[in-house]
Amino acid sequence: MSELLEVLFLLFIVAFFYSTVGHGGASGYIAVLTLIGISVTLIKPSALLLNIFVASISFYHYYKQGHFKWRLFYPFAILSVPMAYVGSFVVLDPTWYKRILGICLLIAILRIVGVFNKKGNSATKQVPLVTGLLIGAALGFLSGMIGIGGGIILSPIILIFNWGNLKETSAVSALFIVVNSIAGMIGLFKQGINLPSEVFLWIVVAIAGGFLGAYWGSKKATNTTLRNVLAAVLLVAAFKLIFI
Fold this sequence. Notes:
This protein has ten helices and no strands. By secondary structure, the protein is mainly alpha-helical.
């Protein structure tokens, strides 16, 4: 019972803080479920399903606040969706699966603590279509392969190249995660993969955390201490996934 409550608490915290920056939290969910010994074949569809719910909530809040920009979204999404479907059929060696996930967690940590956030209000640039297509294709394939939505990598790219501001990036990343996660789920179900019975309880907890986090994030609220605590927890998980 205590282990179940611990897992639910961690899933809630992951959903809360990832959703504040427009992410679904798949890399965090995968880390939590991997560390408690859940099978990879069950983790991928579970993480994608949680992703869909939480990222959808994030997108709703950011869209409602007027932060979503179609011109920033579509160049990445055109090829990412079919490539996420294709990537879902790739089966990685467990060791490499954990290493790739660990690297994605490190990127997520940097995003959560605001490393990629830029100061000032400099004018944003238009995304070059070909560049957007290539980035979207690569991230879509990676998303389907390891069971994430790709937003944790897309958002730093957008911010680094100044293609969108912080709120626009969060809104676009949220929808990017949703469409890629749906494509990945379709691919997994085509392969006959099932979901664990506990997933419905996980969904309830993740939705609660995602709703509160997305509302908080879209309204411009921050709590540096709690974000740093989450980053520290994820850093430990990333270290274990990469080196142990």
